[in-house]
Amino acid sequence: MKAVIPKIFPDFMHRLFMWHILQKFPSKLGVVFCAESLFMEKLNKFFWNSSLVPEEFEQGWHSVLEEYNLSDHSWLKEMFELRHFWIPPYFMDKSMGGLLRTTSRSESSNFYFNHFVQKGDTLSEFYMCYESAIAKQRNSYYELRNGDSKFPKMVTEMEIEKDAASHYTRSIYYKVRKEIKVVCYHMSLDNLVTADNVKKCMIRDKHVKDKVFQVELSLSSNDISCSCHLFTRVGYPCRHIFYCLSLSSIEHIPQQLLSKRWMKNAVETYSTIDLVVESNGSSDEDKRKSTSKEVWFEFQGCVDEVSSDVNALGFVLAGLKCLRAKAREMVKNPQMTKKYVIENMFGVKPSAVITIHPPLQSNNKGSRKRIVGPAEKSADGRDRVWRMCKICKKKSYHDSHNCP
Question: Which residue range or ranges hold the SWIM-type domain (predicted)?
Fold first, then answer.
């Protein structure tokens, strides 16, 4: 994987699973030593601290190893050489999509599907179980979506918290709310400098041992960045950014800080056209789908580039209206008949000769007389004929089998 990933995914970085490496410490250093000494406790302060910089981690690593006389340990030396692949301070400025140190995405998927399938299932059984699992996920999605429609309870009186509740999903809002709450009680301003229309704030965070973080805010475009890189890693603003926005009297989260994957309308922002169909250009229908995919991505990219500027958005909107008018004159859309919809959806024309018809309806309720059984017909002698009894030689309703 280490050799192939840079070739296939050149923009991505291969990383190692920190939890697996930490599980090897007892086997490499001794179970009793790791359990009874404070060695692991002291190292964990540097492993799981996302606010450290590489220099602070290296200094802490060497100090702990020197304290326990492990500086010459071969396996620890090897792990230190690979620190760029598993220690968080070395990729703080990389987008992690919410996955920082674990393989939780694949493990959670395995755990979820294990509730539906078994290893002895056939292919058809697996498919039916898979459909059930996906149906449950969709049901959970709609339940969460209905929960997002309700406005949550605010913990502060800041307008920016209300703005966050209107944009983010409920689970992400709770995380953002923690960051906003810290702004009110545990943040202080050390220094503030404004030059070239850029405001630089040195903010002291009491939650991180009074460490100072630098936030830069462009007053013209509202572009903002923080030295903790929380927004870069997980996609929502940190407490230091919220504090700087509060100092600047900005009551709404800038569009640049609203990551689409955490928004309530994340699904609605993407097109419903058939973008998943692979095309090899062998037919007109494949070319149409491939071109429609490119058109949509160009449109989406254009909107993303100008989403932070109102004037640029107005320019794009005017251009789209003009382009739409010209396209309407160029192409006359067919009427949205049932035949056209079927042809556009499945890529084939409906047959003119219909050989399969719906079955004839059978009216089985109240349309026919009720069937009367023999026992009901013979009740009280009704609907019976007289017979000649061979025993008593008389005509009556009985015969030789029940002659009195």
Answer: 213-249
